[in-house]
Amino acid sequence: MTTNPHGYLHGYSATEQDRLYRQARFLEPMVHEGLPFRRRRKMIEVGSGVGAQTEILLRRYPEIHVTCVEYNDAQIARAKEFLASVPWAAGRATLVKGDATRLEFPADSFDSAFVCWLLEHVPNPPLVLSELRRVLLPGSPVVLNEVLNATFFLEPYSPNTLRYWMAFNDRQLELGGDPFVGAKLGNLLQAVGFRDIVTLVKTFHLDNRAPGERAEFLAYWTELLLSGSKELLEANRVSADVVEGMKSELARVARDPNAVFFYSFIQAQARAAIS
Questions:
Q1: Taking the model in full, what pTM does it have?
Q2: Which residue in 8, 126, 190, 241 has the fewest CB atoms around it within 10 Å?
C-alpha cells in the first residue's frame, strides 16, 4: 500500500501540475467572482500549490501582495517558475515552505486570506483555521473554497464511475483528509473565532440547456477523476477494470444527448473577529 501522508490523491507529477493550472482557469468564474478583497494589500494564501490561484488573485487585485504557504517542494518549484513568467506577478508574490498548522508569522501579519481545495487534504482543519485567524488583522476577510463530494450525480447511470468515486472518497478519508469538509465550513470557522460567516453553495447543474458547457465540464471532470487513479490502484482501492469501465462510461455520458451532470462545492466568506 502506498504511503501518502497528506490525503492528497493526485500526486505531484508535471502532468498533474499542468492539470491544476487548467482547473484554476476553468473554475475561475465560480471561485473568484465577487470576493471581498478590494483595497487589501497583504494576503496569505495557504496551500498555494503551483501558484495557479495566486496568478488569478494577482491579476484581479493589482494592489495585493500574496504570501504563499506550501509544504511540497515540487509544487513550490513549479510555482516559482510559473509566477516568474507572469508579468503582473513580478515582485508581488512571496513563496514560503511551511506547515499550515504552524504558520511562522507573527499575529496580525495579513489583511486577507484565501484558501482553495486545501482542507479536504489535511487531518486537522480547525488548527489550520485557528492559525489563519491568529495571523490575520482583526476584521480581515477570509475566503475558503472546499469540496462536498456527496453532491455528485451523473446521468446516464454509471456504476463503475460511482464505484470509483466512493473509493476516491474512502481513500481520502483513510489518508486523513475529508471529502465532505465543505458542508462543515460554517461550524469550523465559528469554532475558531471568525464572524460574519456566509456559506455559498456553488452548483454545476448541466444538461441539455447548455450542451457546450456540459461537454467542456465532463472533459474537465474526467481529467480530475483520472488524476487519482494511480494512487487508488496502488492502494488496491479500485481495480484496473473499474478504471477502464469508468473511462468508457464517461465517454458514453459525454456523447449522450440527454446527459446530466450535477456537483456542488461550498465557498465560505468570513472575517477575523475583532478582539
A1: 0.94
A2: 241
